[in-house]
Amino acid sequence: MSTDINILLLGQTGVGKTTFINSFANYLVHNSLDDGIKGELQAPISASFIHMDKDTFEEREINIGAPHESEQTRIVGESCTRECRSFLFRINNRNLRLIDTPGIGDTQGVLEDEKNFANILAVISQYEHLNGICILLKPNEDRLTILFRFCLKELLRHLHVQAKENIMFVFTNARATSFQPARAAPMLRILLESLKNDVNAVVPFSKENTFCLDNEAFRFLALCKNGINVSPEDKQDYTRSWKRTVEEFQRLLSRIAKCDKHVTRDTVSLNEAQQLIRKLSRPIGEITTLIQTNIQLAEKHKNNVSANKTLTPQVLEQIDIQIVELGYPRTVCTNEKCIKVIMDDGLEKIDYVTHCHPRCYLIGVEEDMVGDEKIKSCATINKSSGNCRLCECVWKKHMHITYELRKFMSKINIDINSSSDSKPANEVIEQRIKTLTDEKNAILAVCSKIAHFLRINSLNPVNDDIMEYIQHFIREERMKNSAGAKNDDIINGLEKLAADYRHEMDLLQSLVKKSETNATNLTSIIQPAQIFDLVRTLYQLPIYGVKIRQQVEQVKNVQQRTRENREHIIKLPATAETTPTMIGLRKVLG
Fold it and tell me: Helix and strand tally (H, E) in the chain?
């Protein structure tokens, strides 16, 4: 909604994004630290930390809240948040949404960071606008990871440099530095100077957009709830931290509320283009296979008409498809030993009979894509071996599906004269073959352009998903052939399609080399806005445009339902209505 306050939280692993959200919930509910001790601890996100006894030096793990499926047991150096999630607070009939993100600079490595950042961009594109982008830092940091610097630059590049006005610097654990940015300040200025040079973005760093707080009082409350006593002196420190941090929270939210909204959907996002392209992979692979099959059927009918071997020259049989939504998303194996070739309405069909995880609600997995990296997180995949616990095939052979295609034979009436001459019928059939071939070539041309666009613009090396799908369907047709299907022409046609696709990619690559020689921008070959125009040309294809669009919309609908499941509406108790934080926020939000 346009009245929503959307705040994105970014930061290195361990900076305290989770504690930021948990603490905010407690500031809303409790008048003071003493009230928090007496009342119920608010923990929208599960968390854990190690407490060491001052006298015995014994360590004890403190666990807070119930873990969500997108969180994981904390290991030192790992982000405990694996997927972006939003936490929605209702204030004055407005939604205040805090968007939690995976930590940047994770010990799991650079590739995990890049995947996390792609996930962050995907989440941003859901919302009409962002009000604030909070960069969380520790004041005693004297260096930022390369990936963090890279991600901040990429964020501005993907959104728009005007997003710099919505950036807030939030220093956590700041009591130790007297609530000052301390050593992090010069390091941050160096980063901002590089942003100025690299992306021409002058990001302000001043008192107005800088906030120093310490959410240690939340940990103190967690200790109290676990029966651990804290000295009166320490409690006084926590009380001062609580008061100072509540003031900083109010100042932060007041600043964010005054900022102009950064409208994300008005800016054509590179990430949105990338997401749309990935949704096309399965539809394009299936439709090109279907086109090749129907060309073969049309050629066969034309030959029969020419040889007077058919009693119904005016009836052309063509295969059509219908989308059948599954009751539940499932993980299936696509390996040859785990599928069957069955007859359905007189047609050979590949049936994914091995349902390795029949009800799989895996978060973040790319739907309908063979071998997506996220499938490794499915419960059926053994984490140590990478093989499926059920079928024992490697994870790369698995796919997360939400729908199936039912194929059936349709009959097209050919409008011919009453003459017994077969020429009019063949002319109509030839026109049908030409239209099918034109659609196949149009799909090929669009695919090569968007695949090349991905190679130029992606954050990390991209698998050519469309080529993978073409190869996948070639393998399936060969399996049908082994089972007795007479589909040599289909296989040959698909192999030619793959060869033509590679040729198109080679031509585009030569254009890139020429553009490098001429010192022009590589992305000038195709811009993000053009991706949407290209996809619209697919949707407008006369025969299969509607089918491609229906399949893409099916994937979008499933992903939308998944995103809705990631939003957590925080129900606050009645005591929250009269706390200083809530009263202050009401004034700020109006």
Answer: 14, 16
Other C-beta atoms closer than 10 Å to the C-beta of 567 total 14
Tokens standing for residue 339: 């599928």
Structure tokens at 567: 């939003």
Neighbours of 383 (CB within 10 A): 8
Task: Look at the block and give the residue holding tokens 């939280």.
Answer: 9
Phi first, then psi, for residue 140 (nearest 5°) are -95, 10
Sign of CA pseudo-dihedral 233, 236, 238, 241? negative
Judged against a pLDDT cut of 60, whether residue 350 lies above it is answered with yes
Residue type, 298: A
> Which tens digits make up the pLDDT trace of 502-553?
776 676 566 555 555 544 444 455 676 788 888 899 999 999 999 999 988 8
Question: Rounded mean pLDDT of 331-336?
Answer: 93
549/537 Cα distance (integer angstroms) = 11
DSSP-derived secondary structure for 157-199: HHS-GGGGGGEEEEE-SGGGGTTS-TTHHHHHHHHHHHHHHHH
pLDDT, tens digit, 9 for 90 and up, residues 176-204: 999 999 988 988 888 888 877 766 678 89
Element (H, E) at 563: helix 545-566
Taking CA atoms, 315 is separated from 409, 428, 429, 568, in Å, by 12, 11, 10, 56
* 315, β-bridge pairs: 413
Tokens describing residue 116: 């996390």
Asked if 171 and 210 touch (Cβ cutoff 8 Å), the reply is yes
pLDDT of residue 257: 92
pLDDT at site 73:
42
Instruction: Enter the pTM of the model.
Output: 0.65
Give CA–CA dist 520/518, Å, rounded: 6
Closest CA to 120 of 38, 10, 251, 232: 10
CA dist., res. 366 & res. 372, Å (int): 6
Domains detected in the chain: 5-267+566-589 (3.40.50.300), 269-312+414-543 (no CATH), 315-411 (no CATH)
- In eight-state DSSP terms, residue 66 is P
Q: Tell me which H or E stretch contains 241.
A: helix 232-258
The rounded distance, in Å, linking the Cα atoms of 224 and 27 is: 16
Classified as helix, coil or strand, 59 is strand
Compute the C-alpha angle 538/543/545, nearest 5°.
25
Listed in sequence order, the DSSP H helices in 70-144 are: 110-124
Q: Using the 8-state DSSP alphabet, how is residue 102 labeled?
A: P
Cα-to-chain-centroid distance, residue 463: 16
Q: What is the mean pLDDT of residues 55-66?
A: 85
Does residue 374 contact residue 361 with C-beta atoms inside 8 Å? no
pLDDT digits (tens, 9 = 90+) for 419-444: 455 557 888 899 999 999 999 999 88
Which helix (H) or strand (E) segment is 299 a member of?
A: helix 270-306
Query: How far, rounded to the nearest angstrom, does the alpha carbon of residue 127 sit from its chain's CA centroid?
Result: 13
| β-bridge pairing 5-11 and 94-100 | parallel
Which tokens is 468 given?
A: 């993978």
